[in-house]
Amino acid sequence: MGRNWRPCLLKPKMQKQSYFKKQKALIDSMLDKILPKNNQRPVVIHKAMRYSVFPGGKRFRPLLCLEVNKAVGGNGKLALPFAAAIELIHCYSLIHDDLPSMDNADLRRGKPSCHKKFGQAIAILAGDALLTLSFKLMSKAGDNTGAVKAIEEIADAIGTNGMIGGQAVDIEKKKRTTNNMKYINTHKTGALIAVSAKVGAILGTDKKRFIDTMFRFGQDIGHAFQITDDVKDNEGYAKLVGQKKAKEETMHLIENAKAHLNIFGKKPVGLCKLADLIINR
Ligand code: GRG
């Protein structure tokens, strides 16, 4: 398996930076537009919000939303605010996950985590505010049927049946069985990734076949995303089943995900790149 672990021919760095440059700029520009300026009162909370969103990481989830939208025939206009909203939600989850009462992380994206820089109370509020702002951004899409459905899907995916549920089970630190670990991985990290793909599809087509298939694509890469993280840190699932098996499962999930792309005939390049990015990040 070792030799197959990095199957992409592009150098990882190139993969990360070049192909999605334009879409990343669009996402960042929308985030910049919606976030209150640093000098707007109350300054401290707005600074903390921007600090946690910029310069940003890979923007994986919003890119996934936009690439799925393009693949199913959407023009990206409606999907862009949703993609940006998903990134706000992701940033909120990172701030809260880094708190001393959760993962207690001092660093995030190569700089002090939000609570290290602004203190715990402001970090909690900054997370809350990013989450709230994400729903305001999505609500701007109007009463378009797809948009309302997309908001509902996102709310489900980040609530107690999704991301928060996964985080709660993780925090409980119950016995680490493979079943428990699978639940944690598919909910804590996987649910937001899966819904990013689903929402991209909902906002680009009303064909259920495509929406369902893109959801499954998102589920597979979402699951693979967390196992890869566990492998990197030799924690969680990887620690439980061993590096070799965990890597094999990741490869299997990525292969499965790519097989879902057969629905398009020719596999969309952007979605293949995003799937590969999981093992090359
Ligand atoms: C606190 C409500 C609440 C939820 C937290 C999503 C989550 C639940 C926790 C994420 C914590 C975490 C670090 C999980 C591991 C997965 C991971 C590496 C996430 C980071 O996502 P990337 O790699 O980060 O997409 P960038 O910086 O690129 O955006």
In short:
71% of the residues lie in helices and 1% in strands.
What is the β-strand count? 2
Helix/strand order, N-terminal first? HHHHHEEHHHHHHHHH
Q: Stretches where pLDDT falls below 50 for ≥5 residues?
A: 1-15
Structural Rg: 18 Å
Mean pLDDT: 92
Helix/strand/pairing category:
mainly alpha
Q: What distance separates the N and C termini?
A: 18 Å
Strand order of the largest sheet: 1-2
C-alpha geometry: globular
**Beta-strand percent range:** under 5%
Helix proportion range: over 70%
Summarize the main sheet: 2 strands, antiparallel
Secondary structure layout:
Layout: H1 12-17, H2 21-34, H3 43-53, H4 60-71, H5 79-98, E1 107-108, E2 111-112, H6 114-118, H7 120-139, H8 145-158, H9 163-172, H10 178-202, H11 208-233, H12 236-241, H13 243-260, H14 269-280
Antiparallel strand pairs: 1-2
The protein binds geranylgeranyl diphosphate.
Geranylgeranyl diphosphate is lined by residues 57-58, 60, 90, 93, 96-97, 102, 109, 163-164, 167, 188-189, 226, 229.
